Amino acid sequence: MAAQVNESDQIKQFKEFLGTYNKLTENCFMDCVKDFTTREVKPEEVWC
User: Fold this and answer.
1) Are 42 and 35 in contact (CB under 8 A)?
2) Which Gene Ontology BP annotations are present (predicted)?
3) Cα 12–chain centre separation
4) Is 0.70 topped by the overall pTM?
5) Domain locations in the chain?
6) DSSP character for 1?
7) pLDDT tens for each residue of 1-33
8) Would you state the pLDDT for residue 37?
9) Which helix (H) or strand (E) holds 2?
């Protein structure tokens, strides 16, 4: 029989997931986007 995860553990796990996801997306964004002087997406940003 599978052990049930209680609600507070599920919430904690989901918050940890969101924190990890946010860090990953922020790192990728900061590595790719360098110039905010134009509304155009530069070729190096498209392929990043």
Assistant:
1) yes
2) protein transport
3) 17
4) no
5) 7-47
6) -
7) 456 779 999 999 999 999 999 999 999 999 999
8) 92
9) none
Asked if pLDDT for residue 35 goes beyond 60, the answer is: yes
The label of the residue with tokens 């599978």 reads 2
State residue 34's pLDDT score: 85
- What pLDDT is attached to residue 8? 92
Distance CA 18, CA 25 (A): 10
Instruction: Answer yes or no: are the C-beta atoms of 33 and 45 closer than 8 Å.
Output: yes
Under the phi-then-psi rule, with left for phi > 0, alpha for psi from -120 to 50, and beta for the rest, what region is 4? beta
In the block, tokens 């989901």 appear at 14
DSSP for 13-37?
HHHHHHHHHHHHHHHHHHHH----S
